[in-house]
Amino acid sequence: MGKRLTQIATRTGDNGTTGLGDNTRVSKDSLRVHAMGDVDELNSHIGVLLCEEMEPGVRELLVEVQHQLFNLGGELSIPGFELLKPEALLALDNALADYNARLPKLEEFILPAGNRAASQAHVCRTVARRAERAVVALGAVENVRETPRQYLNRLSDLLFVLARVLNRMNGGDDVYWKSERLARGSE
């Protein structure tokens, strides 16, 4: 892996390039750098979410997700290298099944709202979708393993479910969309 940072202001990026983990330099507007940035932003938003009150199991899951996102970002920064393991995807699948089973069946669309923790989980979900799109775009022009794309896809689903879980803390509920079309159909 590349060098660990010992100095933050290196000035090596002043020319519009950045270093990858394999010591190559690429433009800061490359698809790879966009994907790395979106994953980093997602990880930062999850850090904000972790400032909120939540049950210990959700907290532990999100901390593990942060570590896996760091692996994913590292993998993106070193073309051809594998850091995100398939077991990380399996852990998301298991968590998704577990938390989804605790929730009532969803029969209406919900808004990305509710308490602050749930709302932040929805922000994380949308950033995960953007990161997934960035990885898909990168994969269209460069070789990218499928695990990072799958991980982000599954993570966005899990974040949706966790937003519902977080909305139920202290007796809350989802915030349902009031569809005019659905309302007219029930008249």
Automatic annotation (TrEMBL):
EC annotation from Swiss-Prot or TrEMBL: 2.5.1.-
Catalytic activity: 2 cob(II)alamin + AH2 + 2 ATP = 2 adenosylcob(III)alamin + 2 triphosphate + A + 2 H(+)
Domain of life, source organism: Bacteria
Keyword ATP-binding listed: yes
GO molecular function: ATP binding; corrinoid adenosyltransferase activity
Name of protein: Cobalamin adenosyltransferase
Gene Ontology biological process terms, A to Z: cobalamin biosynthetic process
Domain Cobalamin adenosyltransferase-like residue range list: 8-165
Keywords: ATP-binding, Cobalamin biosynthesis, Nucleotide-binding, Transferase
Low complexity composition bias: residue spans: 10-23
Species this protein is from: Caenimonas aquaedulcis
Region (Disordered): 1-23
UniProt similarity note: Belongs to the Cob(I)alamin adenosyltransferase family.
Quaternary organization: Homotrimer.
